[in-house]
Amino acid sequence: MKKLNSVYAIYAAAAVWLLFGVIFPPFNLARFIFCAAVSILVFFIFDKYLCEHDIKEVKFKINKTGVSEADIIITKGKGFIDSLIQYNDKIDDAYISGNIDSLVSNAREIFTFVSKNPKTARKLDTFMDYYFPTALKLLNSYAEVSNSKISSAGGNVNEIKNKVRNSINMIVTAFEKQLDALYSDKFLDISTDIKVMESVLKEEL
User: Fold this and answer.
1) pLDDT in tens, 25-44
2) What pTM was estimated for this model as a whole?
3) Least crowded by CB within 10 Å, which of 13, 103, 140, 164?
4) Angstrom distance (rounded) from CA 16 to CA 87
């Protein structure tokens, strides 16, 4: 699991020095030693109890719809999402991690939508057969080159990383468009229902 950056512990320790400088000027040797001891204590408290707690990933749960096609898509989607989260734990890159978070968030919304609108499952063929596998393949490549013993200065390694960084952003856009398309279809259905209702009301009145 991802962990909070321990830089916050450094900030807390630095704040102790700043506070002492404001409250107890000027410094003498005794105050200097006391401040150093307090700042070290604060650092370890933050580092151990606040900064190093695992960020728990909320388990993605969706009840079955009873529609075979939709349930298969949702089950497969859960597996994809779990894989994305695993890559997020492996890859130490803020930019890639942020994009993975976006992929996970959009994917969860997509499959939640499908669970409530099972008939839309058939519209996810390209999404499931291309975009999701491609995203996982790219992240796997990035993880492999990032964790390899090959020098990061190597041209091929940097080229692979740059291509993945550029491509993953395009896949995030594809996920967003897929979600938007589902809601657009829903909006059209609602608009059609409203028009039918208006026609019926006009006839009755």
Assistant:
1) 666 777 778 878 888 887 77
2) 0.63
3) 140
4) 37
